[in-house]
Automatic annotation (TrEMBL):
SUPFAM superfamilies: Glyoxalase/Bleomycin resistance protein/Dihydroxybiphenyl dioxygenase (SSF54593). InterPro entries: 3_dmu_93_MTrfase, Glyas_Bleomycin-R_OHBP_Dase, MTase_demethylubiq_bac, PhnB-like. This is VOC family protein. Gene3D superfamilies: 3.30.720.100, 3.30.720.110. It comes from Streptomyces camelliae. It holds the Pfam family 3-dmu-9_3-mt.
Amino acid sequence: MDITTPQKITTFLMFEGTAEEAMTFYISLFDDAEVVNITRYGADGPGKEGSVQHATFSLAGQHYMCIDSPAQHEFTFTPSISLFVQCENEAELDRLYAALAEQGTELMPLGTYGFSTKFGWVNDRFGVSWQLNLPA
């Protein structure tokens, strides 16, 4: 299992059975995105056979890692840590916000809050928090 990335610090997302679904969703949102590598649990476990033991994916040149934890936890993602996206235009911001908010939770609806041209904050359906910004 190769768990190296070209960057020193990499965001690591732990899911409980939805890592591949989340990763596939995220790479569908960005033009410059791909699954870099994926290793799956086999029949001998400890995770569910076929689930993600470890994966690396790239969004807009930034690498992320994810796993399906074989252990259930009493915690999940929190908006205290979020992925902040500088959008190139309003159409991109609106598209990303709509996709991420679907079956998710809107924390700050799209609007102008005085610190950017347009901004929105949402937890997606997997619980990952995203801030979407259109700079001034």
